[in-house]
Write a structure and sequence with these properties.
InterPro entries: ADH_Fe/GldA (IPR001670), ADH_Fe_C (IPR056798), ADH_Fe_CS (IPR018211), BDH-like (IPR044731). One of its GO terms (molecular function) is butanol dehydrogenase (NAD+) activity. Keywords: Oxidoreductase. By secondary structure, the protein is of the alpha/beta class. Helix content is 49%, strand content 11%. The protein has 2 domains: 170 residues, Rossmann fold (3-Layer(aba) Sandwich); 203 residues, Dehydroquinate synthase-like, alpha domain (Up-down Bundle). α1 packs parallel to α3 and α10 packs across α11. The two termini are 38 Å apart. The structure holds 5,6-dihydroxy-NADP (NZQ) and zinc ion.
């Protein structure tokens, strides 16, 4: 196990009927006027918006709305919101939505105090030195953004979908009410589950040895997600399954699962981000295709880990190490097919001639990965494996 320090300052309020507690939490924090940030309107259809607004009104907390944050959120929206936040002199951000809204809130929070362009944080040209306090009401479990310090934004002019991170943007409080996810479209439940599983893969397959405790936790998260997605596809309002999936997704990327490791691999994510920089592909759907292709390309770097994965997740005990490792990856793809996730780039309607362009985009971040250091040609090879 590697040395580590761990601190996560986000307070989680989890469970049924907890959205109405947001006003109380903001009040305790001392917020007077917040930027209420949300997406394209699902919160108006499922009642979350009304509950949030009533809860703010009860505590006399003023708010200014910015809506229309899109999935794969963009920099221009972040710029627009920073401008409004400054003009309106808000003292905090309340993000109501999924990873896209919360990530935008993080960029706005850090950009609010910065004289230059917030994109500098993503390019590594500057570091946030102060951040507005962030509060979230999570409406889709997937990214873990509700309890971590990272954010991913697309600079649409430059086709760069990049991440930044700072301890200053951990949400202060996140409300996770699994019942608000009853209204999720089927594909978003699938995408969210796959994103959570892939966060675990990124950390689990990173060459660290003797971290049994976190490997067991990782396997537990993977098995839990795999158990509950199929239940939810038949019964979207199954509370226990929503709750198990929700907490699994948070635990997958609140850094606990990364403790004692070498930092994870993250190539599948970086390649997927390049894919969704050009195509409006849902993050989870892109990962369903890219992560297994990455596994096929790199498993020989640490075959014992893929043997363990096959044994612990799919009960595969027969065959040589090579056979077991490959069978485990095939079983994962089979599971993705069974739940209706795309498993090839072709199914995502990616044009084959664009693979080079996507690889070139990802190459801006090369060498990438820890399991195997990938260069541009490796990325292209992975995209070719993923194609059909
Ligand atoms: O826009 P609205 O109307 O809110 O609709 C959203 C959106 O269309 C909808 N939705 C959310 N909650 C709903 C709902 N529809 C009905 N009922 C509900 N309760 O779902 C769609 C997807 O929302 P989005 O926020 O984009 O999903 P997700 O949470 O998967 O976030 C994906 C983004 O996060 C980034 C991804 O790259 C992507 O841009 N990531 C962020 C990470 C982080 N901060 O740690 C790590 C991840 O690996 C990831 O890269
Ligand atoms: Zn992800």
């Amino acid at each position: 196990m590697e040395n580590f320090t761990y601190l996560n300052p986000t307070k989680i309020v989890f469970g049924k009927d907890t959205v109405k507690d947001i006003g109380k939490n903001l009040y305790k924090f001392g917020s007077k006027k917040v930027l209420l940030l949300y997406g394209k309107g699902s919160i108006k259809k499922n009642g979350v918006y009304d509950t949030v607004v009533n809860s703010l009104k009860e505590k006399n907390i003023d708010f200014v709305e910015v809506s229309g944050v899109k999935p794969n959120p963009v920099l221009t929206k972040v710029h627009e919101a920073i401008k409004i936040a400054r003009e309106q002199e808000i003292d905090g951000i309340l993000a109501v939505g999924g990873g896209s809204v919360i990530d935008s809130a993080k960029a706005i929070a850090a950009g609010f105090y910065y004289d230059g362009d917030v994109w500098d944080f993503f390019e590594g040209k500057a570091k946030p030195y102060k951040g507005l306090p962030i509060f979230t009401v999570l409406t889709i479990s997937a990214t873990g953004s509700e309890m971590n310090s990272g954010g991913v934004i697309t600079n649409e002019k430059e086709n760069k979908k990049w991440a930044f991170g700072s301890p200053l943007v951990y949400p202060k409080v996140s409300i996770i009410d699994p019942t608000v996810q009853y209204s999720l479209p089927r594909n978003q439940t699938i995408n969210g589950g796959i994103d959570a599983m892939t966060h675990v893969f990124e950390l689990y397959f990173d060459k660290t040895k003797n971290n049994d405790i976190m490997d067991e936790v990782s396997e537990g998260i993977i098995r839990t997600v795999m158990k509950h997605i199929p239940v939810l596809l038949k019964d979207p309002k199954n509370y226990e399954s929503r709750a198990n999936l929700a907490w699994s997704a948070t635990l997958a990327l609140n850094r606990i699962n990364g403790t004692g490791r070498q930092g994870g691999d993250w190539s599948s994510h970086m390649i997927e981000h390049s894919l969704s920089a050009f195509y409006d592909v849902s993050h989870g759907a892109g990962l369903a295709v890219i992560a297994p292709a990455w596994m096929k390309y790199v498993y020989k770097e640490d075959i014992s880990k893929w043997v363990r994965f096959a044994e612990k997740i799919f009960n595969i005990h027969d065959g040589t190490d090579e056979e077991k490792a490959l069978k485990g990856i095939d079983k994962l793809i089979e599971f993705y097919k069974k739940i209706g996730a795309p498993t090839t780039l072709k199914k995502l309607n990616i044009i084959e001639d664009d693979l080079e362009k996507i690889a070139n985009n990802a190459a801006l971040l090369c060498p990438m990965g820890n399991m195997k250091k990938l260069e541009k040609d490796d990325v292209l090879n992975i995209l070719k494996i993923a194609y059909e």
